[in-house]
Amino acid sequence: MYVDVSQYDVGEKARFQLPVMKENDTHCIDFNYLLTSPDGSSPGTLNVLVKVNKGPLANPIWNVTSYTGKDSHFQAELAVSTFWPNEYQVIFEAEVSDSKAGFIAIDDIQVLSYPCDKSPHFLRLGDVEVNAGQNATFQCIATGRDTSNNKLWLQRRNGEDIPVALTKNINHRRFAASFHLNEVTNQDQDLYRCVTQSERGSGVSNFAGLIVREPPHPIAPPQLLGVGPTYLLIQLNANSIFGDGPIILKEVEYRMTSGSWTETHAVNSPNYKLWHLDPDTEYEIRVLLTRPGEGGTGKPGPPLITRTKCAEPMRTPKRLKIAETRSRLIAVDWESLGYNITRCHTFNVTICYHYMTANNHSKADSPRHLVGSLPPYTNVSLKMILTNPEGRKESDETIIQTDEDVPGAVPSQSLRATPFEDRILLYWKEPAEPNGIIIQYEISYIGVRSFDPSVPLQRPGLTVSLPSNATYHLFSQLHPGVTYQLSIRASTSKGFGPATMLNVTTNISAPTIDEYDGSEAFLNETATTITVLLKPAQAKGAPISAYQIVVEEVNPQRTRRQASSDCYEVPVSYHIASSGGSPYYYAAQLSPSNLPEPLPFTVGDNKTYQASVYCLYFSKTENSPEVIPDPAKQTDRVVKIAGISAGVLVFILKLAKKRKDAIGTTRQEMTHMVNAMDRSYADQSTLHGEDPMAVTFMDSHNYNNRYENHSGSAAENSRLLDVPRYHCEGTESPYQTGQLHPAIRVADLLQHINLMKTSDSYGFKEEVILQPIEDDPSSDYINANYIDVSGNASNATIGPVHETVYDFWRMVWQEQSACIVMVTNLVEVGRVKCYKYWPDDAEVYGDFKVTFVEVEPLAEYVVRTFTLERRGFNEVREVKQFHFTGWPDHGVPYHATGLLSFIRRVKISNPPSAGPIVVHCSAGAGRTGCFIVIDIMLDMAEREGVVDIYNCVKALRSRRINMVQTEEQYIFIHDAILEACLCGETAIPVCEFKAAFYELIRIDSQTNSSHIKDEFQTLNSVTPQPQPEDCSIALLPRNQDKNRFMDGLPPDRCLPFLITIDGESSNYINAALMDSYRQPAAFIVTQHPLPNTVKDFWRLVYDYGCTSLVMLNEIDLAQVNGCPQYWPEEGMLRYGPVQVECMSCSMDCDVISRLFRVCNLTRPQEGYLMVRQFQYLGWAGHREVPASKRSFLKLILQVDQWQREGEEGEGRTIVHCLNGGGRSGVFCASSIVCEMAKRQSVVDVFHAVKTLRNSKPNMVDTPEQYRFCYDLALEFIESS
Fold first, then answer.
1. pTM: predicted TM-score of the whole model, two decimal places
2. Which residues contact 690 (CB under 8 A, 6 or more apart)?
3. In terms of domains, do 232 and 374 share one?
4. Nearest CA among 926, 904, 916, 907 for reference residue 795
5. Helices marked H in 794-919 — which ranges?
6. Element (H, E) at 857
7. What's the total number of domains in the chain?
8. Which residues form the Tyrosine-protein phosphatase domain (predicted)?
9. Residues with catalytic roles
């Protein structure tokens, strides 16, 4: 190569390449070179490069720049060792440094097959492997003489040169050179070679690799296999690693998360057990992996953070002592409990106690921890229990007695009073809670009202103290016809307890008149008149309303009637008496004001008294022997004027009605008009007499039928009223109030009979008393009871009838209720169960105005909102009615899911300041009781962690009869509470959903599970599995060929039976009706039609008014039984009796939308049905869930928009996939969840899927599909 540098610019290069050398040998390349110029300066640089395997050129291995003379050539040699299969190529390069005249030349190049003489040859350089972060050393061994003039370096392929660190002679012909690379990384990994250079030549080795290995570490944390108080069993989980192997050592590194020390154990098996750990302590565990070589241990893997279990407490608590005792609490003290005793950071200290009747006393001084709600004067056995999740330790029992307290009230049911005219005999029993030793009773009484306003009422009342062994007392010197309030209370050494009140009315008797003697009865007589002395009568409990004068004719030919001085049953005029043969007639009537004192009165003067004219008539008389022996007045005149005497002249006293519970004025009370005035009250013997047909209210079970529409003729139709009329005397009170169950007067019974739907729902305790309406004291009654058990306040009542709607709204207003719960339908099985007591717009009920505001219809219940106003009150209240529509009369819902959701909705809607919730069904008993019991038990389960259904029902029945009416309802309560406890509260507010969602899907490192996975497992455990008898119709032989698969068959109760007849085809189709969020049976879920069921499919579409078809599977003719196209792509096709015409077809992203016009040829008069099919293409057959959440959500919204636009939103939606299960369930559940989030601002995927599974268990049947429902809910919320 000869280069004239004057012909080139500075920096230009000329290269001469030797042929490629492949022989596995040592080569020596000998050559001559010349660098000359006219002025003796260097014309440039001569470089020698060696390219390996056609790779990049590294830095030169030899170069020269000095002037060699004008004609003098110098000799140099290159020592190149080649190793097969590598290729080597030597390149000579002349680089111009000055454009002046000069030459660079090489000549006489020889490739010799023996070693060079002046340049050393390198032996094969081997690869160096080192772990990242460690130092690497290349050692180059060369054959030849090492001189101090030789330059040695390590050359990197990319051109970097590394100086020699150390050289040493191995012998006189061989030396070694060492090169160091410090703390290498992956960036240092490359090819390196050794180079030596002198003026006479150069030597170069082969390229060797620097291999940097990454120390391994696990990808995943160790997995927890077992846990105990002092050990953790883990699986190293080290098969998947980052970095390089091989792994020669596995170690477990662990520490307390709260500590700083770390321990490491070598492990030679897949699992390892860490021993001697502290109980209930959190540890961080990592795995270390080591590969060969220094620094081969990788960084610790991801941590497993877990906690050991609690250990059983070391010992029982000590130093349990009683610090103080009171009547209802005990103060308890004990030692401080530390971790060294509890062996657990989470522990409970439970004070267990039981008690019995006390016989002695105990006292202490200072208060400590209080054990409250104890019964007074009771021996209490106390012990302390220290518990943690792994065990318990109990202390010894300590017995202490609580102090006395004031006693409880005397049981009201034990009070029994027997009233007389001027006395009352009262019986009682000791208080059920004496709370000590009863030392005395205090009885007081006071008159509260009287039939006779002239009777003075004693105020203040009188008080009597009685010894502790007294059980009765006789109150004397009382007034007849007076209602006395009796009060009794007991006393211990601590004082008197609460009083028990009882109102008792003394009996009313007939008024009395002072006896007449023979000299004063008759004052004067004429031929046509007789003057008698009238004396005022003494009232016996009621005011006298009238004096009536009766004339009885004494016929000497017959014996005078017996008991003539008693009552005269019927008021008879003289004409009637003459024509009818009556021995007496009414002559006159005087008001009490006309007879304030004894007054002469002339009978027969033809004067008018109180607007009535009375005459004294004479009959033909004859002299005859005197019948009535009266020596002072035995004259013929006396005989001729009918022999009137004190025994014959009778004053009939009319009693005035003063209160509703004493006298009635209606026809039902059997009152009869006498001379245009009311007669006396009916004797109580009408209820308690010897009439064998007489019945009581509690004995009768058909008053509803007898009196509901015929109250006006009750007196004529009822045997209760078939009694002797017009008794003037009575020896018993007409209204016995001293008994446990007060007798109900006939008047009260008939007055309230229309208010009671059935006799078995009559509430007899805790009754709601309405504020009476002015001038109508009987308007305080409504058939409703307070139910306040465990803090849950509600009013249980019957479904209103037409006559009680006003009273119902009065109760709602009076009790300040904001929520009404209705668990009946207006009509069930053709029978009216409840009157529609609310308006569709606005309605006035008495002095109330009820205005309809809005309605929210849902699948299983309806929420209506009203405003309530009352005349005279400047207030408008909002009242919500929650109407549960899915509960049959005398039955239970098939599942409790809907009712539980209904109860939760009621609870969150009832304002805290509102009054009790009004709950009613038809009779206010069975279903009302179920609702209240479930509500109470849900609160109890949440608050106390236990339920007590039996005692809750028992408590409700003590307040209202027949609450929870049937065994089926009682079992249903248990099922509902079980479902609520198993499932828990799964609703999430929309505002919190995003944060809750990420918590749901987070993997727990201890369980390797997530909350959403656990929720799906819970869903599987509570999903009812249908039995063969539940699917009996689908299993009939004639229907089996209509089922694509024999698992997941629809239950009989959910089947949509086909209506349109198609030859001999049955009315069965493999489909199930399901509820949407707002509409019952809005979805029909079915399988993709089989070739033999396409006709049935279109019958289903038409018969059930389906306006939307959602297709979620692909058409696959290779599928078992075939998966045919069941619609026409264009034009018109007939499928049995149904004709289908394709109107249009369009595609939007993953949805093909087709519009069909469907008509039934057997019923052409019904017109046609417009049906839109949505064929979803974004769900491949091999995928568990759709590929895109956004496109699936778009499908749901498109279907919803079409449903709202057509058929006034009432059309149903058919959803089908291959088997009518998982995919269809995802669509229905997602639709429900989106609607719920939009209208109620909550997301409850669990409830949506559970509701669907109640109808068909295979809805949403994989965890991935269940997770997708959550994903879609999040997508809906974020896109809204």
1. 0.46
2. none
3. no
4. 916
5. 805-814, 897-909
6. strand 848-857
7. 7
8. 745-980, 1012-1276
9. 921, 1217
